[in-house]
């Protein structure tokens, strides 16, 4: 029963928003009584926090954190996620938006507990990308990249692209943003500074 309520609340909060989803509507959709719902979630806020901590965090982990950790490199992981999400949006024919973004836009200023819970997910997301960049650096790649700055850039680019895609109901902004990210990466690796760093690394590797 708890899982069913979470399923219904998650879908309602994403489709209509937290404030527009009444407990009465959620109970009716889940087919539960008020007593049964309040046994697991004493308040609507408690239900929303459970959705954030259990469902939204899991969605970010499945969509972003796990793929980036498993990728050959941080940049390849980011590229794979952008492409996979864009392809899925095109397949389903509509854009509901990023679950984390949707609730962050609505709830971050509404209550400090909501803000802290949402910020924690963003932090874990950024840290996973930064850790992957650091791992790449240990293998001799991304020597001129600041892991935390790259992570912030990747998350912000995706979040902004998803907001634009939701507004346009078109996955195009994701593909446009990925193309821009790849161009910036290509320019960075072909710059004189990057070439000098590679020469230094090669000299050290011969020692």
Please provide a brief summary of the model.
It is built from ten helices and no strands.
Please provide a written account of the structure.
The longest helix has 27 residues, at 44-70. Helix 1 crosses helix 2 and helix 5 (74-92) packs antiparallel against helix 9 (172-190). The termini are far apart. This protein is 80% helix and 0% strand. It is mainly α and 207 residues long.
- State which percent range the strand residues make up: under 5%
pLDDT < 50 runs, ≥5 residues: 197-207
The biggest sheet, with number of strands, parallel, antiparallel or mixed sense and barrel status, is: none
Task: Sketch the topology as an H/E string, one letter per element.
Answer: HHHHHHHHHH
Helix and strand composition category: mainly alpha
Q: Give the overall pLDDT as a whole number.
A: 91
Q: Total number of β-strand segments?
A: 0
Give the helix proportion (percent range).
Answer: over 70%
How far the N terminus sits from the C terminus, by CA atoms, comes to: 64 Å
* Morphology: elongated
Radius of gyration: 20 Å
- By DSSP (H or I, 4+ residues per run), the number of helices equals 10
Primary descriptors:
single chain; mainly alpha
Topology, pairings included?
Blueprint: H1 2-15, H2 23-30, H3 34-40, H4 44-70, H5 74-92, H6 99-107, H7 112-138, H8 147-168, H9 172-190, H10 192-205
Helix pairs in contact: 1-2, 1-4, 4-5, 4-7, 5-9, 6-7, 7-8, 8-9
């Amino acid at each position: 029963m708890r899982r069913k309520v979470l399923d219904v609340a998650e879908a309602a909060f994403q489709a209509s928003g937290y404030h527009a989803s009444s407990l009465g509507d959620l109970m009716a959709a889940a087919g539960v009584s008020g007593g049964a719902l309040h046994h697991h979630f004493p308040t609507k806020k408690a239900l929303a926090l459970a959705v954030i901590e259990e469902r939204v965090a899991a969605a970010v982990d499945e969509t972003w954190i796990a793929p980036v950790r498993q990728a050959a490199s941080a940049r390849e992981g980011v590229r794979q996620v952008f492409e996979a999400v864009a392809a899925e949006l095109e397949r389903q024919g509509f854009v509901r938006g990023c679950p984390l973004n949707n609730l962050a836009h609505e709830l971050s200023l509404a209550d400090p507990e909501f803000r802290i819970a949402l910020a924690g997910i963003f932090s874990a997301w950024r840290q996973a990308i930064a850790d992957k960049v650091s791992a790449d650096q240990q293998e001799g790649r991304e020597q001129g990249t600041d892991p935390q700055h790259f992570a912030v850039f990747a998350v912000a680019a995706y979040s902004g692209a998803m907001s634009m895609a939701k507004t346009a109901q078109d996955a195009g902004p994701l593909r446009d943003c990925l193309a821009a990210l790849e161009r910036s990466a290509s320019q960075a690796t072909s710059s004189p500074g990057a070439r000098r760093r590679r020469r230094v690394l090669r000299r050290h590797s011969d020692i």
